[in-house]
């Protein structure tokens, strides 16, 4: 059968890194206070931009401390500044700056080069160049895909040959256990070289992004969740806390006589307005989907928090997980007078019994309750807590209990027992005894 050349049309959907998308994504990841600061800055620089409510030029109805938050340079801001100083092709520089705000709090890049290329419609070569540019920034180890790559980047900075660093970090467990012969056989490096690398490991930072962790700014809820009399959950944006912008039509008409001047200001102004709309629309969509997934929390209580990941929400909405991550970052909702970070509702799952998977949040609450009601003279060990939870249908290991206990700043059973003994043996204050 002869092979004949033919043309066919296929339809695909993908994002393009347009100025509008960059503006929308940039605004999407800002907290409420940061959003107001950015909007205020741009309205000051662009005469065509004006607040829809002329009296609203700063955060409304909040105390002065909240309106005037002084923010230290964030990780993403630092990376964007460093990338702007590099001699890179413009598409690569823009991509690197885009990815700079897509890192985890620890400073890791979760997406593979292929995923980024497919998502943004850019060549694999451009993606690799952008990632390399990010990984050359300070702090060293930033934008790694995993712990091994993060530590290897830091070892290379300390003078270890890059190939040797990556080989050694692929067998960190053997280095920690000092199994030099086996590690040498797997890596091809000499035991002496591996020992030299192992000496450097304790001085490395597995979470380089946390160097920029700053005191959290006040969380201002942008979403309100209400439970009506019919038991339905209503999700709305709180308009009073969100800036509303429009174009100054009078000034725009005057400016239209000068085409160059109009082009200088009108395009960026419209891009900002569209970006703000994109942020609000995306925030509302994600909030509605999140509340629907966590309906049990809002209608029955915190013990009914369901397991939920960014990927789950992204699949529900047809978005990329990184877009969902930007949306929930530094955002909050208010329900029955209590403010909850949106990230509170993202919780990994623990295998349960007949009821299916249980959220890590619910398991942590169960652990706290068990500790609060344990005998003061015989605190539960992590193994005992794991056994008690298994009786309740939660399939959990002792080390997972220890991890969750540490996340909640609950001391070990030994430390809790020691503190309880100190309280029991503490001498009574003068005058507190019997008058006899």
Short description:
The protein is of the alpha+beta class and 436 residues long. The protein has helices at 19-28, 32-45, 64-67, 75-84, 90-100, 113-120, 124-135, 147-157, 162-169, 172-176, 180-187, 191-200, 249-255, 259-293, 295-300, 310-317, 321-328, 360-372, 382-391, 398-407, 413-425, and strands spanning 49-51, 223-227, 233-237, 245-247, 332-335, 338-341, 349-350, 358-359.
Number of strands: 8
Strand order of the largest sheet: 3-2-5-6
Indicate the percent of residues in helices. Answer: 40-55%
Order of helices and strands: HHEHHHHHHHHHHEEEHHHHHEEEEHHHH
Describe this entry's structure for a reader:
The structure is a single chain. This protein has 21 helices and eight strands. By secondary structure, it is an alpha+beta fold. The strands form three sheets. A four-stranded mixed β-sheet has the order 3-2-5-6. Strand 7 and strand 8 form a beta hairpin. The relative contact order is 0.09.
Descriptive keywords:
8 strands; 4-stranded mixed beta sheet; 436 residues; alpha+beta; two-stranded antiparallel ribbon
């Amino acid at each position: 059968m002869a092979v004949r050349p033919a043309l066919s049309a296929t339809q695909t959907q993908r994002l393009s890194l347009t100025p509008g998308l960059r503006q929308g994504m940039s605004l999407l990841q800002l907290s409420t206070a940061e959003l107001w600061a950015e909007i205020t800055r741009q309205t000051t620089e662009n005469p065509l931009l004006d607040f829809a409510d002329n009296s609203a030029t700063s955060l409304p109805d909040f105390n002065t401390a909240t309106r005037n938050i002084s923010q230290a340079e964030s990780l993403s801001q630092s990376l964007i500044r460093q990338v702007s100083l590099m001699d890179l092709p413009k598409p690569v520089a823009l991509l690197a700056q885009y990815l700079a705000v897509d890192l985890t709090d620890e400073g890791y890049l979760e997406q593979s080069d292929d995923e980024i290329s497919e998502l943004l419609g850019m060549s694999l070569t451009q993606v690799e160049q952008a990632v390399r540019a990010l990984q050359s920034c300070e702090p060293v180890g930033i934008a790694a895909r995993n712990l091994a790559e993060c530590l290897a980047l830091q070892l290379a900075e300390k003078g270890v040959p890059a190939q040797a660093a990556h080989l050694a970090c692929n067998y960190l467990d053997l280095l920690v256990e000092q199994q030099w012969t086996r590690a040498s056989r797997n890596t091809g490096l000499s035991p002496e070289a591996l020992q030299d690398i192992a000496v450097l490991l304790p001085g490395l930072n597995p979470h380089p992004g946390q160097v920029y962790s700053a005191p959290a700014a006040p969380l201002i809820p942008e979403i309100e969740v209400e439970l009506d009399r019919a038991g339905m959950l209503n999700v709305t944006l709180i308009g009073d806390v969100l800036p509303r912008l429009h174009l100054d039509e009078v000034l725009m008409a005057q400016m239209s006589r000068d085409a160059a001047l109009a082009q200088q200001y009108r395009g960026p102004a419209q891009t900002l307005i569209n970006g703000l709309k994109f942020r609000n629309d995306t925030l509302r969509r994600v909030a509605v989907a999140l509340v629907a997934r966590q309906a049990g929390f809002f209608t029955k209580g915190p013990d009914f928090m369901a397991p939920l990941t960014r990927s789950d929400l992204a699949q529900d909405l047809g978005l990329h997980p990184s877009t969902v991550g930007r949306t929930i970052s530094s955002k909050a909702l208010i329900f029955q007078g209590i403010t909850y970070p949106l990230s509170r509702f993202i919780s990994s799952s623990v295998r349960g019994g007949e009821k299916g998977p249980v959220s890590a949040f619910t398991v942590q609450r169960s652990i706290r309750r068990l500790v609060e009601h344990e005998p003061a003279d015989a605190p539960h060990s992590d193994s005992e807590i794991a056994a008690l939870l298994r009786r309740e249908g939660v399939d959990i290991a002792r080390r997972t209990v220890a991890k969750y206990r540490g996340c909640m700043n609950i001391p070990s059973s030994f430390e809790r027992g020691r503190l309880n003994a100190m309280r029991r043996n503490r001498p009574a204050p003068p005058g507190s005894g019997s008058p006899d």
